[in-house]
């Protein structure tokens, strides 16, 4: 399977990792949209939220907790941050391996300004 983020999991494409364990990898986004912009991905290939199964509930919940952990380590705990998942064409999803964006380090535009 030709998946960019599976290659980041395998290490065949380099990334600036901030966290890794047996289930999850987190790394800096290559084109940051905020002073801090990191991605959290499960090592398991799930294309998007549309493909998440009931059995993935624990893994996806764990991704959220890893997002919290790396946000804290990046110094974002006090001032806050945003966790985003894009699903499908209307959202602008470009990499079809499910991921959470963790954005912060400045006052982010309100969600209402995103259209
Ligand atoms: P999406 O639009 O699918 O939710 O977000 C995909 C994200 O992956 C984008 O923010 C994009 O900048 C990031 N990205 C794309 N290719 C690479 C890459 O090779 N390395 C890293 N670290 N991030 C990437
Ligand atoms: Zn993948």
Automatic annotation (TrEMBL):
<dbReference type="InterPro" id="IPR019808">
    <property type="entry name" value="Histidine_triad_CS"/>
</dbReference>
<dbReference type="InterPro" id="IPR001310">
    <property type="entry name" value="Histidine_triad_HIT"/>
</dbReference>
<feature type="active site" description="Tele-AMP-histidine intermediate">
    <location>
        <position position="99"/>
    </location>
</feature>
<protein>
    <submittedName>
        <fullName>Histidine triad nucleotide-binding protein</fullName>
    </submittedName>
</protein>
<dbReference type="GO" id="GO:0003824">
    <property type="term" value="F:catalytic activity"/>
</dbReference>
<feature type="domain" description="HIT">
    <location>
        <begin position="4"/>
        <end position="115"/>
    </location>
</feature>
<feature type="short sequence motif" description="Histidine triad motif">
    <location>
        <begin position="97"/>
        <end position="101"/>
    </location>
</feature>
<dbReference type="InterPro" id="IPR036265">
    <property type="entry name" value="HIT-like_sf"/>
</dbReference>
<dbReference type="InterPro" id="IPR011146">
    <property type="entry name" value="HIT-like"/>
</dbReference>
<dbReference type="Pfam" id="PF01230">
    <property type="entry name" value="HIT"/>
</dbReference>
């Amino acid at each position: 399977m030709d998946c960019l983020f599976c290659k980041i999991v395998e290490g065949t494409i380099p990334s600036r990792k901030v966290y890794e364990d047996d289930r999850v990898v987190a790394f800096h986004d290559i084109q940051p949209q905020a002073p801090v912009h990191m991605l959290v991905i499960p090592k398991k290939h799930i294309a998007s939220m549309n493909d998440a199964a009931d059995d993935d509930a624990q893994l996806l919940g764990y991704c959220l907790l890893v997002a919290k952990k790396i946000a804290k380590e990046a110094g974002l705990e006090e001032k806050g941050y945003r966790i985003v998942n894009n699903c499908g064409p209307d959202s602008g999803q470009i990499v079809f391996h499910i991921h959470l964006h963790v954005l912060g380090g400045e006052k982010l535009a309100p969600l209402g300004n995103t259209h």
